[in-house]
Structure formats: C-alpha cells, structure tokens
Amino acid sequence: MNQGKTIVITGASDGIGAASARQLHREGHRVVVVGRSPEKTPAVAREIGADHYLADFTCLDEVRKLATDLDTAYPRIDVLANNAGGVFGDRAKTVDGFERTFQINHLAPFLLTTLLIDKLAASRATVIQTSSVAARLARKLDIDDLNHDREFNPLRAYYAAKLENILFTKELHRRYHSRGISAAAFHPGNVATSFGTQSESRLMKFITTNRVTRATLITPEKGADQLVWLAQSEPGTDWEPGAYYEKRKRAKRVNRQALDDDLARRLWDRSDELLA
C-alpha cells in the first residue's frame, strides 16, 4: 500500500465523504476536504488537520475556481474522489441553466476532472466516481436531452446521473489511461447519511428519514470502505481500471447502457459541448 498520497475528496463535509476523509487521514494520507457547507466543511477539516475548500456544484464558476485553487496549491494530486452528489425533487435549473441533478452529479465533476486533467495525468492519479446501484434503473439515456426538458422525474434524473458516472469512468479510462490515469466507479451501498433528506421526492425522503428503512442502511464508515480501498490500493493489481465496483468486486449486474462504448464517447462529447 502506498502511503502519503494527496487525496482530494468532494462532498466531504458529511456522509461517506467525511468518513473517507477521516479514515484516509488515519492511514497517513494528506486529505483535502471539499464541500458545500460553510459550517460542516471546515469542521471536518479542523478535526483531521486538513486543508479545505468550499464549492457549490450548482455553480460551475465555483467549480472552475476550485480547479484553479487545487492546481495552484498542490504539486501533485494522487487521487481525485468525485463524491459530491444528491437526489432532489421538483425540477430546478442551476444558475448555469442546467437541471441540477444532472449538473451536481455529472457535469460539475466532469468539469473539475477535465480542468485538472494535466495535473492528474502527471501525477498518475486515480479518479474515483461515487455512483450507485440505482444506475441499473436508468432508462435509455437521451444525449440530446440530458437536462430532462422533455420529461422530468426526480428519481429518473438521479438514475440517469448515476449511469453517467459509470459512462464517464469508462470514457476517462479510454482517453487517459495511456497517460497514467486510473479511473473507477463504485456503489457505496445503501448508506444512512443525510443524503436524500433534503429531497422533495416523497419516496426518497421516506427511505432516508423513516426509522424502519434507516435501520436497514449501513453506516457511513462502512459505505466509505470502497472509496478508501480504491484510493489506497494499486490499480491494475488490486482492481481493474475503467470498471464499476460493488463490494470491492467488479459488478456483475449492470445496466446494459453502461457497457456501450459509443454512448460513453457521445456523453463525453456532449458534456464538452454543453460546457463550451
């Protein structure tokens, strides 16, 4: 196991992001805490003696500033964990004009990764996407309607975004593995965190706040296991880059679309176009 890596974790002010930050700090790594909350983010950072950055992924200018700040502050970034995400309810557009589930879960981490791509390649970095088993439920992905303008449903938008995380991982591997980047996506398990509690979706709110359903969920510490494992272990030896993982193993059951090389390429190209 390599010690002393510089590991950037987004969505690290709570849940599995914060739990991962604590575990990786205990293992001797230099953790960089990124979060949206001006209260929780510095609190987690102070607890482990880490640097922290505030960035709200509903604003792409904040993502651009984050990328610039990280690139300036760190000579190398060994791991970028794109962990920030969320599931919401009523359809809403961000200040950038994108549907917020799509922007927060896919477009913002796509932008952050691509802005840092030269630093990540030079560092031979691992890039990790926190996806979800919910990707299996995604309907046919419409590259021409990633904002769900034609038909919006909060859970379908989330399912699509989690599929996009896997497709992004696949295409990141195809484009940049030869330059040294190792990419992986994973499902953390059904975790008892604040994730989903602010959703306007009645179903998601019930699942994440009801005492009976919460009793079936795992702790953030257990949910952080795979992120910590992927961050510390050796790509190509301990796990295969470009793949999606569940329970530290390459997932056997996936949405068929997650295997579509052409769809992954088209998603990347369309994301680029939207950001241009």
From TrEMBL:
> InterPro entries recorded for this chain?
NAD(P)-bd_dom_sf, SDR_fam
**Gene3D superfamilies, per database record:** NAD(P)-binding Rossmann-like Domain
GO MF term list: oxidoreductase activity
The answer to whether UniProt assigns keyword Cell cycle to this entry is no
Q: Which UniProt keywords apply?
A: Oxidoreductase
Note one Pfam family from the annotation. adh_short
Source taxon at top rank: Bacteria
PANTHER family for this protein? PHOSPHATIDYLINOSITOL-GLYCAN BIOSYNTHESIS CLASS F PROTEIN, PHOSPHATIDYLINOSITOL-GLYCAN BIOSYNTHESIS CLASS F PROTEIN-RELATED
Q: What is this protein called?
A: SDR family NAD(P)-dependent oxidoreductase
Organism from which the protein derives: Phytoactinopolyspora halotolerans
Q: Could you read off the lineage of the organism from its UniProt record?
A: Bacteria, Bacillati, Actinomycetota, Actinomycetes, Jiangellales
